[in-house]
């Protein structure tokens, strides 16, 4: 596949008044030179205290926006993930105030990763585990119709920081278009993540990503949709799972209980500091809703892949 | 494996004053002759209107209770699922007032299933789909310490109607013991279900189930935990997934949006009545929490396995 163009330009919020940096036609391919979610503020020599000095205005840059010819409000922009060229370096952090158990983990923590960017074998998490990799784009979306600048942090109807682990090679994502030309941007590449991204960060890692664009007319999506070309968890599931649950009338409380129980289990069984168990869950364990109908109590489950610690 | 005993006795609520119908020692195996969740009130000749005549006091019988020697409050009861002998017959229903989209589907609906109880090949869902089977126990738990009768419908700390699809053959479940002897019961066998059980019922199907018991002393679980012996979704994942999302500040609203979008997609693409799409999602599609940290909006996703409709 020839790449017509590489997008290096970045911005830090969703805003439909931003000028497009490129225009493509349906069928075209673009490459994006994506920074990690810290926007280059962390590196292989960084330490936890550097997290306290992060400039949050520079967090989570996205590359774009790209105008897609013929995309109009009510259409769906189809984006197929063709390939990644990962950097081989990444980080996972507990950023104070951020994460599902932010109240229980107030101190900054930072773990750095090195991985083989070609073979993409499992990455070592200190002496504790081997985490299978599956690169994907954490933030991918189009400009909202609402005027002004919108934070890059929360995802919304038009996509953005959805952090969906399966927007990986081969997946086609369908995004609701709200403005003419769609104004597409992408960033926040991850080398691995569990469903939930529970500590707030994944294996944050700069990569080049190659994407192909198409337009589905009048698809009238309410929210993003995607299609995967095959299985989504086989890099994780070979040895089964240890699973903790949280049961009660609130899904958020259930998710927190399941995560707290998994951290407790990993800490007791493997002698792992709790903060490491928390971050390890974020990069490989999956939050599922087992049951959402047996009123008044729902079952949330956290699936930790056993091969990571074998 | 020889079975010492089959438990036929059933009850309809959790109550620690119920007398044990059998006592086992750690390591023992019991077989349970489990009815479907309607407690035998539905059969191969049933129609949707029969749902309006269900006696809800007889719903979801469980077999037991069984006293496990040496199990004390603070211990975990370990229950390993050894095997199922399915009946080959089942039902899926939309019961008015019950289910994630109960407000949108007020009419009763009933679909009946026949499947090969030995080969367990995919079961036909009318002309619309082939649903891979994986039997499991929907309701499995122990008596709570709180006195009196507690409804069988909601799950709770001591387990019960958790409807966790992966409490299948080979899985070991750990339940928090709250009363001496644990007072274990099991029921509500399902031939297949997606994570979420979104319409409120699975493939409800009578089966015999064989379980082995053990006790972990002083495990002090907050909620149930389990371990699977291997992959959990390979019966579903071979052709990938179509995935819809719901994004916003409320996980329940996100789950409802993702489900509504999937029903819309299946209806448009396959000409399927919406009620059938709803029930089909309940027996094979998985609710996942993709992201629960990018405040204030979370991403909930519903994964529909494409092989079901190929």
Verbal overview:
- The structure is a homodimer of 310-residue chains.
- Chain A has helices spanning 251-270, 274-284, and strands at 6-7, 10-11, 13-14, 22-24, 29-34, 62-68, 76-86, 89-94, 109-114, 123-125, 129-131, 136-142, 150-151, 159-160, 172-176, 184-190, 207-216, 225-227, 241-248, 286-291, 298-305.
- The model of chain A has no long low-confidence stretch (mean pLDDT 97).
- The first copy, chain A, folds into 2 domains: 3-227, Jelly Rolls, CATH 2.60.120; 236-309, Endonuclease I-creI.
- With 310 residues, chain A is mostly beta strands.
- In chain A, the strands form 6 sheets. The first copy, chain A, has a 6-stranded mixed β-sheet with strand order 1-5-17-7-15-18, with no helix packed on it. In chain A, strands 2, 4, 6, 12, 14 and 16 form a 6-stranded mixed β-sheet that branches.
- In chain A, strand 10 (123-125) and strand 11 form a beta hairpin.
- At the A-B interface, strand 18, strand 19, helix 1, strand 20 and strand 21 of A face strand 18, strand 19, helix 1, strand 20 and strand 21 of B.
- Strand 18 (225-227) of chain A pairs antiparallel with strand 19 (241-248) of chain B.
